[in-house]
Amino acid sequence: MKRVTKRTFEEKKQAGEKIVMITAYDYTMAKLMDESGVDAILVGDSLGMVMLGYEDTVQVTMADMIHHVSAVRRGAQRAHVVGDLPFLSYHGSIDAALENAGALMRAGAGSVKLEGGESVCPKVRAMVDAGIPVMGHLGLTPQSVNQFGGFLYQGKTEESAARLVEDAKALEQAGAYALVVECVPKALAGELSKTLSIPVIGIGAGNLCDGQVLVYQDMLGMYGDFVPKFAKQFAPVGDLIRQGVAAYADEVRRGVFPAEEHTRM
Ligand code: KIV
Fold it and tell me: Ligand 1: distance of its center to the CA of 260 in Å?
């Protein structure tokens, strides 16, 4: 089976085909996502919230990311695996940033993702020069939630939209192969998708992007702590899990499970 790579992203952009990305954080889910035919699996630092129960992504470490990237890679045969560089793992020296990006690649990522614009471009360039494909991330960048003062839409004023366009162009120039834009107005995301030669993957950014990404717990109704307005629920998996587990508990309590067919006599 041919694995999706950054080249596939480029080809899809040129052909006007939408790119489908979704998060996963473990082997079983990565296998299910892969079998569902998505193009890319993002091992996002959102795992800090949806897998580890933190309030935000700031507490996620390199060790957390390496652990989850390697599990996802074992489950994903075809999909491209993107590993998220966590908070402050690329803000020190270029050498330290390269070391951390390299660690995610060694764990099985096919590329890494980092948040920020012009200020991170020297790191992006160094990674690309070292053979590491880089996906950028602009708009609501969750690692800056404390700077923003909450999970707030970005690029709403003319000035902030213009800044975002400049940052996007700088990332493209630095060699990023794709860009995630999160929680920005549809028109701005559409303009970016039209202007940039690299694919723009939206989340909470409307349908004019070259592709979409969602956190799987949001689209399957599995995470109730914070439900983003933009996240459509495609299947009520959270409800199904609750129903299935309640049925199991009921049968155990009534002595119905295990039945004869589940028992070696
Ligand atoms: O960490 C993550 O899951 C992400 C997506 C929300 C784009 O960065």
Answer: 46
pLDDT at 225: 86
For 165-223, the pLDDT digits (tens) are 999 999 999 999 999 999 999 999 999 999 999 999 999 999 999 999 999 999 999 99
CA–CA separation, 181 vs 21, rounded Å? Answer: 13
CA of 91 to the centre of ligand 1 (A): 19
Average pLDDT, the chain: 97
Mean pLDDT in residue range 233-249: 97
- For residue 113, give the ligand 1 atom closest to its CA: 8
Parallel/antiparallel/unpaired status of strands 19-23 and 178-182: unpaired
Nearest CA to ligand 1 atom 5: 44
Q: Which atom of ligand 1 is nearest to the CA of 57?
A: 1
Phi, psi of 258 (to 5 degrees): -80, 140
Atom of ligand 1 nearest to the CA of 115: 8
Predicted structure pTM score: 0.97
235 CA to middle of ligand 1, Å? 20
Indicate which residues carry an active-site annotation. 182
β strands within 108-204, DSSP E: 111-113, 134-139, 178-182, 200-203
